[in-house]
Amino acid sequence: MAGGQSGKALRMLGMVVLVASLAACSAKKQNDTEALSDLTAEQLYKRGELALQNRKGKNEDALADFQAVEQLYPYSEWAKRALIMQAFTEHKNKKYEEARIAAQRYLDFYPGDEDAAYASYLLALSYYDQVDEVGRDQGLTYQALQALRVVIEQYPDSEYARSATLKFDLAFDHLAAKDMEIGRYYLKRGNYTAAINRFRSVVQDFQTTTHTAEALHRLVEAYLALGLTDEAQTAGAILGYNYQSSPFYQDSFNLLKKQGLAPEAKGTSWLSQIYRQTIKGEWL
Q1: Hey, which CATH number is domain 176-278, 1.25.40.10, 3.60.20.10, 3.30.465.10, 3.40.1350.10?
Q2: pLDDT digits (tens, 9 = 90+) for 232-276
Q3: Of 40, 90, 171, 238, which is most buried by a Cβ count within 10 Å?
């Protein structure tokens, strides 16, 4: 009996402690809210800025202040500034999804504001900064390209347009690199048709990237392996016309020469069409 009473007393004590803890947390939260509401929107915003600038400070503190500005003073000019700073802070913390959400909210609420270009740029960066390895899924790369294009086309005179253009070119090159990686994989394993499809994509869709010369050379290799000499010679001709100083052209020239062939446009393949369009200027 005594044991049962002791257990009951312990359970009651535990409940008392739990209630007290919850009450303390609630009181602390209320006190924190009251402490924040004692500050003006400008004071909160500048405190957030100071927390970002202070190397010993925490970005989470800055984010809390910017969020408080928006919550406590939602229709003020400081709330608008605080929202763009939320996007910046989330991006700085590498919380890219949160950064995109904040940047998009800014664009939804203030599409014509002077900082809309920066919000659009931050949104694009939140995709671009996740494009770090050729082997990763390319969905983010496509999204980065789309978002960067928005900055370039909608805010061409902004200070972010040039940076967006440079990043667009790098992301575009990244996609070509992915096709080249897969194409080499297939080529090495003798899956020539699959390899050709990848190299063709680079030549047709990514011809302004740094990978086009190699793609043409790999096409020469793959077509020769299949015995399709017209296509191999035409790929060599395009390579020689556009990239004659490239070591890839010399490699292709040597491969063709070993089989008694030369780089020249022959046949009616897709490569012949590219040759006519890009070199002879025949578009019809």
Answers
A1: 1.25.40.10
A2: 999 999 999 999 999 999 999 999 999 999 999 999 999 999 998
A3: 238
**CATH 1.25.40.10 location in the chain:** 40-174, 176-278
- Enter the tokens of residue 158: 């902004």
Task: Give per-residue pLDDT as tens, 46-83.
Answer: 999 998 888 655 688 899 999 999 999 998 999 999 99
